[in-house]
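fold-stage: in
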Amino acid sequence: MAVDVDTGEYRWHYQICPAEQWDCTATADMTLATVELEGKARKVLMQAPKNGFFYVLDRATGEFLSAEKIAKVTWAERIDAKTGRPIENPGIRYNGKPGMFEMWPGPTGAHSWQPQAYSPQTGLVYVPIMELPALIGEGQEGGGEVSAGMGVTLIPEVELPGGHKSYLKAWNPATQAEAWRVDLPGTWPGGVMASAGGLVWQGQMDGKFVARDAKTGKELWSFKTESPIVGAPITYRVNGRQYVTVLTGAGGQGAGMQTLGNAMYRTDYRLPAAS
């Protein structure tokens, strides 16, 4: 939703999943940039929320410009180019239907809390992506599922082919196409930062802190820390010298470090923190 900062008046809104039933929240960070679309410079807002699509909107008017899948998606076929509304797949509305629906992405999302980054040098957005499916269906009585008593049965992590993977994806918002991707360890990729030196910085679940070429994704430098890295790096300058800093540690429980795909990266928190 857009609000006039001076008056507080409502300006526009865009809803990614109307009447959603799947924990399809849109709380991921949003990126503002000027992107050339069809030969015209547009001031846009870009977001890759949980639901597996990458959205480009006109940030002044809220006009829907484009959206394409950035991960595996089974809840919708596509986003209609004219209306900006999702074309849902059969079975996604599970009320009154038997069985469970295989849902990609699951409730942890294709892109969750960890920040994406944008480089005006390359025109690419760098997004930490998860492939984590779930099963969802109408509520069962007497079950011990996560959502017992809520009218829905949700198994947030299931073993399915192609699941429990993560990537760093470089995405071209002008063409809505992948520029490159890098496979990452575990299933909870760290936040991303793009710097003016043509680099993309990201920590990994195996404790490795990496700088990559922003154009190609090639690893150029790395440093091994003592624990997983989830937070996004920052950069700053003191007395003419530039520094890059990142917090180490896996963060919260549940959908983060305790996800099944991260079992081999469990941390002994008696180790000292590093920065």
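fold-stage: in (second)
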Amino acid sequence: MPELITTRGTFTREELGLILPHEHVFTDLGPMEAANWRGAEPDEVVDAVSPEIERAKAAGVTALVECTPEGVGRRVDVLEAVSAATEFPIVVPTGVYQEPRIPDWVREASEDELAEWMCTELTDGADETDVRAAWIKVSTDDDDPDGIADSEEKILRAAARAGTATGAVIGSHTLSGDVVHQQLDVIEDAGYSPERFIWIHAQAEPNRDLHAEVADRGAFVEYDWIGGEDQSDETYLDHVEAALEGGYADNLLLSQDRGWYDPSEPGGGTFRPYTYLVEEFLPKLETRGIDEATVRRLTRDNPFDAYAR
């Protein structure tokens, strides 16, 4: 039976409710060479983030997926501290971010070495903790919409091999639908299935035909800037309705890409609450005539199916 691996142990489907599939607790977006994430004190992060976790719990959120990989300040010990303080499950990734934030050790590693590293984090513990990673986060360069850099393809092939060995889903920050097709080709060539792939930030691709094409290949399509300034709620509602009308209810994920404590900013920066989806967006889905069973599928079952193994 599939289980969701979290900082609080493993959970079955019946033990969880609404899951946020793309959020951040701790992310360093400052200059890579400054490595501010290394000096962050877990207690300071706990003090800043815990009230927001409690707000999310009160709104009905039962778990969230942390989407910060290597290259943007992943600290599993910090996630573990926040989780322990709030008794709240956080789903942790292995994996690596995009150019130009790929760490030197990743550039120098072979595909075999990267696959072995990911497998170890997925089975034994991540970032020198006992917390197992549940999934693999990868990315493509936002400034290169025409293809995948060699370094990014090496990481993706390693991810596909680690996914094949463990069943872990691969989620990719990718802004172009054409590039997603290239990624799915790489994954299939490496022996893994598009059904274990999440297209993160699909809303950045304006061509909804590409959303449907990717879903037709079996992948999850994730709309995850809900509540942000880039697109209105009406646009997201249109995205969801189009996906449902196309028969892709089982492929759709919804989240906010919110949070987070940034150690490069004074006091961790400005935190964006995790509650917009539940308090603002889901009621609007209901006004569009989306029934309760479908909302449950989108916010509970699909996230579990994507990240559990």
